[in-house]
Design a protein that fits this description.
Blueprint lengths: L1 H32 L18 H7 L5 H10 L18 H12 L3
Helix pairs in contact: 1-4, 3-4
């Protein structure tokens, strides 16, 4: 009986986590669509800048705050000479949602 309850609780937890991840992904997609991210980046293909999957491969979650600052400030050097334009008008919390989604693409 305990095993059945534990298994059920685990299944509910996994389902809730999956639903939360889907909601975060939908929010991130909406935020990215409302910005100019897609002009230079795609999920799996390098465009002007690296793909989101390349970014996820290079960085782990501990880099989230630094990447939020990088998106807002712009710059070059991490991926070559082509600079990323700054995005100072984006809210920190919105950029964090986008960065966290990108880093989840491992």
């Amino acid at each position: 009986m305990k095993l059945i309850l534990s298994t059920a609780a685990l299944a509910v937890g996994i389902a809730a986590t999956g639903a939360a991840h889907a909601a975060d992904a939908a929010k991130a997609a909406a935020l990215m669509k409302g910005s100019d991210c897609m002009a230079c980046h795609a999920e799996a293909t390098k465009l002007v800048g690296p793909s989101y999957k390349e970014i996820a491969k290079k960085y782990d979650a501990s880099a989230t705050d630094a990447l939020v600052k990088k998106v807002k400030a712009g710059g070059s050097g991490a991926w070559g000479a082509v600079p990323m334009t700054p995005h100072p008008n984006l809210k920190d919390e919105d950029v964090k949602v986008m960065v966290e989604w990108i880093l989840s693409l491992k």
